[in-house]
Design goal:
0% strand
């Protein structure tokens, strides 16, 4: 299974590198980031509704579904408690405070990178969960998460640039985050390939809960911290429709 999945991992890896490179040379404004967040939120929501939920309903395993869903929510809440906020929230804090990013002991940037690193590993694991539901579902979830990864690295790199980090450090951080994403995806794929029946249902429920959390408690909440506009709102539905059409075409 891993051999079949590896080529698709290039999609989120390229998205992560692209986000870091763009932000290193031309950090995007907050309004543009909000538009990207809305679009990514719509895409991820469509992936959950169109791919993971039907497969989870097909498994029809109530107890594993409850346990997996609770585990997904618990993990995401635990990560937020541990890191003191979502990745974009930490990125905004670093940029606003103007933290000097040159020192290895800098608490602001170290905390930001740690938060994003954890989130990248989780995103990678969720890619593996997507492929547990089938090749088509895995591809759709991978594309959806690639947009979330693009925004995540974009916001992080922009915050580091705003805090005074050199381009070299920003690009090195991007490379490290990309490696963690790939490691999480490999681990998630291997774990998913070994499961079936109720265990698979629990894993799918875990993925559904984690992805819904990413949309409702990270992407959209943080997007609305910027003054909302009709264009930004419309991009959420554009993202949902775009992935829905992609699912129809596959």
């Amino acid at each position: 299974m891993l051999g079949d999945v590896l080529p698709f991992l290039a999609i989120p890896a390229v998205a992560a590198v692209l986000g870091g490179v763009v932000a290193a040379f031309r950090p995007p404004g907050r309004r543009l980031q909000s538009v990207i967040q809305h679009f990514a939120g719509g895409v991820v929501f469509a992936a959950v509704a169109g791919e993971l939920l039907p497969e989870l309903m097909y498994e029809a395993a109530a107890v594993p579904t409850v346990l997996g869903f609770a585990a997904g929510v618990g993990l995401m809440l635990g990560v937020k408690k541990l890191t003191g906020g979502g990745p974009a929230e930490r990125a905004e804090g670093v940029a606003a405070e103007g933290v000097a990013a040159e020192g290895a002991d800098d608490d602001g940037t170290r905390g930001l990178v740690t938060t994003v690193a954890i989130d990248m590993v989780i995103d990678g694991l969720l890619v593996g969960v997507g492929f547990a539901a089938g090749a088509e579902a895995g591809l759709v979830v991978t594309i959806a998460l690639s947009l979330e990864v693009l925004f995540l690295v974009l916001a992080t790199a922009a915050a580091l640039v705003g805090a005074g980090a050199s381009r070299g450090r920003v690009l090195a951080t991007t490379a490290g985050l990309t490696a963690l994403l790939l490691a999480g995806a490999v681990a998630g794929t291997l774990a998913a390939g070994a499961l079936s029946g109720g265990a698979l249902a629990g894993l799918l429920a875990f993925g559904v809960a984690a992805l819904l959390y990413l949309v409702t408690e990270e992407l959209l909440v943080e997007a609305h911290e910027t003054e909302d506009t009709p264009l930004a709102t419309a991009t959420f539905f554009a993202g949902f429709l775009a992935l829905l059409l992609l699912e129809m075409a596959l």
